[in-house]
Amino acid sequence: MGVAEDDAEFEIVDEPKAGLFGRTRGEARVRARVRPATPRGKTERRPRKQAAEKSSEPREQRPRKENAERGERRERAPREDRPQREPREPREKIEVDPEEVGKAAAEFLNGLVTAFGTTGSVKVSRVEEEIEVLVDGSELGLMVGPGGATLLAIQDLTRVASQRRLGDQDTRLRIDIAGYRERRREALSRFAQKVATEVKETGSPRMLEPMSSADRKIVHDTLMEFEGVVTRSEGEDPRRRVVVEPAE
Fold it and tell me: Where is the composition biased (Acidic residues) (predicted)?
């Protein structure tokens, strides 16, 4: 078979049977095969119990330095030990001559006229408790703007510039450019009277277009003495408007 005797394995399947006179009957049957190789033993491993016992040993607990430091940081001084902020002293009210306010406004407006690239003269007058500054000249439409929007912005800028320079907070300042405010007042007064007449005749209220606070005041003042109608404002800026309605 080409196999060493030690590597072969034999097994007798059938033996010959004995016959008369010592003779045998039949043939013997033998099964032969190559002995299978013995498998290698598995590598011995450390018992799990030992590993479990090792892992079950309590670890030495060490305090975390980080947590200790955090705890120290959280400890703050009591509120009683904190320095108290001193209350601010109220600003001392400065009394300024209204004429000085007018001069500061005129100086600012003269510079603004030059910045707009045009020419004009500035005149200051006092009407009761209000300082009026009139700018007159040609080609001043750019300083008025559509619907007087630029004029209102210039009035606010002039007021702020005068307040910062003099510290005045009380003087009322009114700016007019190229007679726009006066023309606007006259036009609004005529329009308000016309609307009031229609409301009185028809008995139906009339809501006007949105107006600035200055224009609404003109309408209210004009119709204050107009018999048969009353006025009120409703809505929110910039859509606030005047309503003219029949008096009860």
Answer: 1-13
